[in-house]
Amino acid sequence: MASISQNAAEELLRKVDRSFAAQWPIFWLPQVTSPFGWRPDPHQLGVERAFRAKVYHNGLDIRAGVGDPVRSIWPGVVIRVWQDDRNGNAIRILHLAHPEVVSGYAHLDLTKVVPGQIAVTPTRIALSGNSGRTEGAHLHFCVSVDRQWVDPTAALENNWTVDQFVEQLAAGDNHPKV
Ligand SMILES: [Zn+2]
Hints:
Elements: H1 6-19, E1 32-34, E2 37-40, E3 54-57, E4 60-62, E5 69-70, E6 76-84, E7 88-94, E8 101-111, E9 118-119, E10 126-128, E11 139-145, E12 148-150, H2 153-158, H3 162-170
Antiparallel strand pairs: 1-4, 2-3, 4-11, 5-10, 6-7, 6-9, 7-8, 8-10, 8-11, 11-12
Bound molecules: zinc ion.
């Protein structure tokens, strides 16, 4: 079997990554059930929303059941697959065209990739679920740039490439169009 060097593979992926329009991580009828930013604590269930403590939501909650296929927003390299009490089963993907951009996927039922694996849409990287700290099945999706959480909504709604996303962030326009 012919093989290409790691560097050649990364260069190829960087090109694909650069030209690829953002895709919602849930394939069908994506619906944001909880947006990015400050929100009433979803875990203070006995308390009316208006009186709940405000907690920072570092990503989007996207409607999903248990077992819905999940894909990467842009192509990239899987850098972490792990499990903890809060995130449940989770995955992080680094987007090589802009290696400062990392996307995350949490509360998964099942992960289908391992670190080092290349995730090219429409590869299913996982199945959504209800693992970790949740009040029901959904996909928690987040994006960081230089280790800072940013709102990915506009990239998803406008199908920005990772280049366009980084440009818009630099221009200070990180707000979804309405
Ligand atoms: Zn969330």
